């Protein structure tokens, strides 16, 4: 029977709980990526394995997470990384508690319970493969997956844990990575935003080309389309350059270097993303005012410029300052929930107010339809049609899809995320289709331009044909006259 008063670490060493806590906490620190620490500040294991040594000063610190004043805490780049280390240390202590409090297996022919440096493994029968959920504290560079990923550890037939080529007990954490899922979502985002860019550019060209479209309603559409175009372009550039680089070179990439240019570009992307929500709010505000105020026209566009392009500046600047002071890492791309609300709050307010506008607009439409004495089913069909068209213009699909399941099957969650990313990326394409390419006024103007061009081309072709016929007639006349003027005619003229 195994000694129940000791805790086992990978390799078979048994330690008392106090020494195990220090040893495992030092191990958690050692397994963390070098890039997670300020330059040259990562400590190394001392000779006992229970302490961490500063290679510059040769000072040794006890590897404990319970002393916040320890110099160990100052080596981490961010508070988040420090907290991940603490979680790993606490998990190791819980593992040791399990080992000492749970009676060991009565069968001596089993792979023994152990702490492998990341995860706790229970007694396992020979010839089995054990699975444990991947711990949250191993996700240094990204958020924890919303679905359960599992690490595995193999117990050989001789009741010993699987060892790698170096002879060390080995647990397989390769399945814990989110790389493939992230690549799929990045491709989805880049492709869908690319489609929106392709559709938005001609739509803006149409709006700017026709003088008949220089009205307030189209003014709103133009600014929303410009915001969507700039936002889409920034997202495509950032994800296809910066994020792809981080996936291809996880140990040395632009995000890890956290340079000023990268943070500025990401801040600009955040700005244009927020302007999109503000211009969707302007669309809702203008349409609601137009319908609720007896179709009164807007006299000035200054207020809309201030809301659409001006109001996002303040929250974006505040967010950038807070991130620089509190969470200056990874080009600010890794979200920190408490700080992200600085930008999420105005977005949420815009969507909620737009939802109120939409409800009131539909109420007005139904009231007007009823007063026109149209049959009841037709009234509701028209109201529903008007509602469905306004949803993407007001951005309300984001409100309906704001809930994201926290747990579930990985495949279902991936499909859900792909759908969410697709709707996000395709919004520019959808609104350009609904409010430009399928707009009756735009269709009429394009058809009229086509007919005018066709008429001009036909007139030009007819003129060319007439000139060609005249040229041919003149040439024929000259040829006939030459043939008629033979030797006899010449001799008669001489006489």
Radius of gyration: 36 Å
> What is the straight-line distance between the termini?
148 Å
The shape, in one word, is: elongated
Count every beta strand, where a strand is a DSSP E run of 2 or more residues: 9
**Low confidence ranges:** 482-495
Q: How can the largest sheet be summarized? A: 3 strands, antiparallel
Beta content comes to: 5-15%
Helix vs. strand class: mainly alpha
Q: List SSEs in N-to-C order.
A: EEHEEEHEEEEHHHHHHHHHHHH
**pLDDT averaged residue by residue:** 83
What is the helix tally? 14
What is the strand arrangement across the widest sheet?
3-4-5
The helical percent reads: 55-70%
Would you write up a description of this structure?
The chain has helices at about 15-30, 80-100, 180-210, 215-250, 255, 260-290, 300-310, 315-325, 335-370, 375-395, 395-400, 410-435, 440-485, 485-495, and strands spanning about 5-10, 15, 45, 50-55, 60, 115, 120, 130-135, 150-155. It contains 14 helices and 9 strands. With about 500 residues, the chain is mainly alpha-helical.
Topology readout:
Elements: E1 7-8, E2 14-15, H1 17-30, E3 44-45, E4 51-53, E5 60-62, H2 79-101, E6 114-115, E7 120-121, E8 128-133, E9 150-155, H3 179-209, H4 216-248, H5 254-257, H6 260-292, H7 302-310, H8 313-326, H9 337-371, H10 376-394, H11 396-400, H12 410-437, H13 440-484, H14 487-494
Antiparallel strand pairs: 1-2, 3-4, 4-5, 6-7, 8-9
């Amino acid at each position: 029977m195994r000694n129940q008063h000791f805790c086992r670490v990978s390799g078979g060493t048994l330690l008392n709980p106090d020494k195990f806590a220090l040893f495992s906490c030092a191990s958690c620190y050692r397994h963390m990526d070098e890039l997670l620490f300020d330059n040259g500040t990562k400590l190394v294991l001392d000779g006992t394995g229970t302490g961490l040594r500063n290679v510059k000063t040769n000072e040794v610190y006890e590897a404990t997470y319970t002393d916040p004043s320890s110099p160990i805490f100052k080596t981490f780049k961010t508070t988040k990384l420090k907290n991940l280390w603490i979680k790993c240390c606490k998990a190791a202590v819980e593992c040791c508690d399990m080992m000492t409090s749970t009676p060991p297996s009565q069968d001596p022919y089993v792979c023994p319970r152990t702490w492998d440096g990341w995860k706790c493994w229970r007694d396992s029968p020979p010839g089995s493969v054990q699975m444990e959920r991947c711990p949250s504290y191993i996700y240094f560079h990204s958020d924890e997956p919303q679905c359960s990923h599992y690490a595995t550890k193999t117990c050989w037939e001789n009741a010993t844990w699987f060892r790698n080529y170096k002879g060390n007990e080995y647990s397989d954490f390769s399945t814990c990575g989110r790389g493939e899922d992230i690549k799929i979502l990045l491709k989805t985002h880049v492709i869908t935003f690319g489609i929106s860019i392709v559709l938005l550019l001609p739509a803006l060209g149409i709006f700017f080309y026709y003088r008949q479209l220089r009205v307030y309603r189209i003014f709103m559409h133009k600014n929303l389309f410009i915001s969507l175009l700039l936002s889409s372009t920034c997202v495509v550039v950032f994800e296809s350059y910066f994020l792809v680089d981080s996936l291809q070179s996880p140990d040395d990439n632009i995000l890890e270097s956290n340079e000023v240019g990268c943070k500025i570009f990401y801040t600009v992307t955040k700005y244009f993303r927020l302007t999109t929500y503000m211009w969707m709010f302007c669309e809702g505000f203008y349409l609601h005012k137009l319908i609720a105020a007896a179709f009164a026209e807007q006299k000035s566009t200054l207020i809309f410029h201030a809301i659409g392009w001006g109001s996002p500046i303040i929250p974006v600047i505040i967010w950038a300052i807070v991130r620089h002071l509190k969470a200056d890492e990874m080009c600010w791309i890794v979200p920190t929930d408490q700080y992200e609300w600085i930008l999420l709050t105005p977005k949420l307010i815009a969507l909620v107010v737009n939802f109120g506008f939409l409800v009131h607009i539909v109420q007005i439409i139904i009231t007007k339809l009823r007063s026109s004495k149209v049959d009841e089913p037709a009234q509701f069909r028209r109201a529903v049609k008007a509602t469905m068209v306004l949803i993407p213009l007001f951005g309300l699909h984001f409100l309906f899809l704001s809930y994201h399941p926290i747990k579930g099957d990985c495949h279902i969650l991936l499909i859900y995320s792909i759908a969410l990313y697709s709707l996000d990326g395709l919004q520019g394409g959808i609104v350009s289709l609904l409010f430009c390419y399928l707009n009756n006024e735009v269709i009429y103007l394009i058809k009229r331009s086509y007919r005018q061009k066709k008429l001009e081309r036909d007139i030009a072709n007819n003129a060319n044909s007439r000139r060609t016929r005249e040229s041919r007639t003149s040439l024929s006349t000259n040829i006939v006259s030459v043939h008629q003027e033979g030797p006899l005619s010449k001799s008669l003229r001489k006489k």
